[in-house]
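Action item from last meeting closed. Structure (131 res):
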């Protein structure tokens, strides 16, 4: 019987929290509408295409060992690109220097944080001009 009372108490607390969250949401929606802001516009993040960021992150994905529980890159990305590269019989400068880059990343793991540097620059020319 005591267990049932504890469950009922827990249910009541959860219901109160849910009700409070719903009330806060309703007030927020009301404020947004009063300001003339649509919900879609208020929660929208801009989507930008920046090729230099894609290229930079691709390079890191190809040379770093991403074995973390929450992967930095799409699982299987490197393997899929290696298969496509081999099928096309392509060989790039990144391929030629991959072993040296992996060795450097292995000996200096703090360099892995450099993958986010490209986000600070507006174009490849801006990024390239810093080195």
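Sequence:
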């Amino acid at each position: 019987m005591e267990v049932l009372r504890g469950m009922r108490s827990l249910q009541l607390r959860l219901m109160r929290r849910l009700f409070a969250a719903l009330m806060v949401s309703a007030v927020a929606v009301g404020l947004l509408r009063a300001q003339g802001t649509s919900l879609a516009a208020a929660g929208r993040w801009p989507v930008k295409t920046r090729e230099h960021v894609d290229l930079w992150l691709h390079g890191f994905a190809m040379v770093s060992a991403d074995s973390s529980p929450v992967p930095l890159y799409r699982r299987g990305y490197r393997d899929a690109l290696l298969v496509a590269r081999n099928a096309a019989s392509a060989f790039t400068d990144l391929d030629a220097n991959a072993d040296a880059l992996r060795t450097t990343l292995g000996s200096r793991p703090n360099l892995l944080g450099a993958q986010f540097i490209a986000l600070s620059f507006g174009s490849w020319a801006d990024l390239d001009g810093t080195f």
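Note appended to the action item: The chain has a mean pLDDT of 77.
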